[in-house]
Amino acid sequence: MDVGSWLIETRTLIDRWIQEDFPPNASTGGTVEEVMRYSLLAGGKRLRPQLVLASAAYLGHVVEEFKEMALAVEYLHTYSLIHDDLPAMDNDDWRRGSPTAHKQFGEAMAILAGDALLTEAFVKMAGPGLAARFEPSRLVAAIGNFSHAVGRQGLIQGQVKDLAGEGQTLQLQQLAEIHHKKTGALIIACVQMPAMVVGDFVSEARLIEYGSHFGLAFQIVDDILNETGDAAMMGKSTGTDRALGKATYPALLGMDESRRLADYHRIQAKTALGWEPRAELLQGLIDFAVDRQW
Questions:
Q1: pLDDT tens digits for 147-157?
Q2: Within 13 A of 143's CA, how many CA atoms are on the CB side?
Q3: What are phi and psi of 99, to 5 degrees?
């Protein structure tokens, strides 16, 4: 399978699904829908919804069955970016190659659009689409898992610890714990939830381990690119971690050791799934995450 072509095809598919939810004529100026649409369609890799779809393929299901789940994680992720960019957080001016939401529409509308996207994620998860396809108790369990991953014990806790770590010298285990929550918890949910709703508990355990290593590898590369990446290619400012005194892998380990650690987690993620043909997409996605330049 040509993983590169699959990435392009699914990115186009996800963009079309978003546009169906937020058509231009329903996103007029001055509405929260305008800010939501602007932030969702500004670009981006679509890696998290692609992980949902690749997990579905790994489980032997067609990707269209997981449309609402894929949208839910992209809406949740975009909400987190809008809020992460705010002056009280990372104070970024650029995201996905465009002015951040608060720069374009003001802080109040950016906060409200983030809140709306967070809520919309659960509208998708609990809506009629997934409920018609999957056993209700399994779907409820997946929604509970999603909630935990992005709430006060998951993504939010990671963001809190990330802010608290600014200007501090952390141990490697402390840094890994921050990013296991801030970045990894949602990534694990992306690959775990499809297994939960189809009831494949053997694959679920493998996918959890894969997602855990994927999240850490992704964050290490993110830290490296913040130092070495091309801002135009990445669509966001670089050097911001150092300016804010963030605890990062390059600051703690140096560039060479950070790259070695990213490769270690790549290998561990691949090993978790094994080398059977059905794992090809997920194996390709971890390669993309580690080798990317944006």
A1: 999 999 999 99
A2: 18
A3: -55, 140
pLDDT digits (tens, 9 = 90+) for 108-134: 999 999 999 999 999 999 999 999 999
Q: Are 238 and 227 in contact (CB under 8 A)?
A: yes
Residue pair 262/24 in contact (Cβ under 8 Å)? The answer is no
Tokens describing residue 117: 């996207």
CB 182 within 8 A of CB 158: yes
Q: Which two tokens stand for residue 169?
A: 């010298």
Output the CA–CA distances (angstroms, integers) from residue 48 to 11, 232, 253, 275, 289, in the order listed. Answer: 11, 22, 27, 22, 11
Contact 220, 262 (CB under 8 A): yes
- Taking each helix axis as running N to C, give the angle between helix 67-84 and helix 107-126, from 0 to 180 degrees, rounded to the nearest 10: 160
Q: Quote the percentage of the chain above a pLDDT of 90.
A: 88
For the cut 90, the answer to whether the pLDDT of residue 244 exceeds it is: no
pLDDT tens-place string over residues 165-207: 999 989 999 999 999 999 999 999 999 999 999 999 999 999 9
Report DSSP state, residue 184.
Answer: I
Res 230 pLDDT > 90: no
Query: Which residue has tokens 């189809």?
Result: 198
Please give the model's pTM, rounded to 2 decimal places.
0.95
Q: What share of the chain is helix, strand, coil (3-state, %, to 5)?
A: 75, 0, 20
CATH superfamily of 3-289: Farnesyl Diphosphate Synthase (1.10.600.10)
Question: Which residues are registered as beta bridge partners of 99?
Answer: 94
For the chain, first and last CA: distance in Å? 23
The helix/strand/coil state of 273 is: helix
Closest by CA to 74, choosing from 15, 26, 162, 132, is 15
Domain boundaries defined on the chain: 3-289
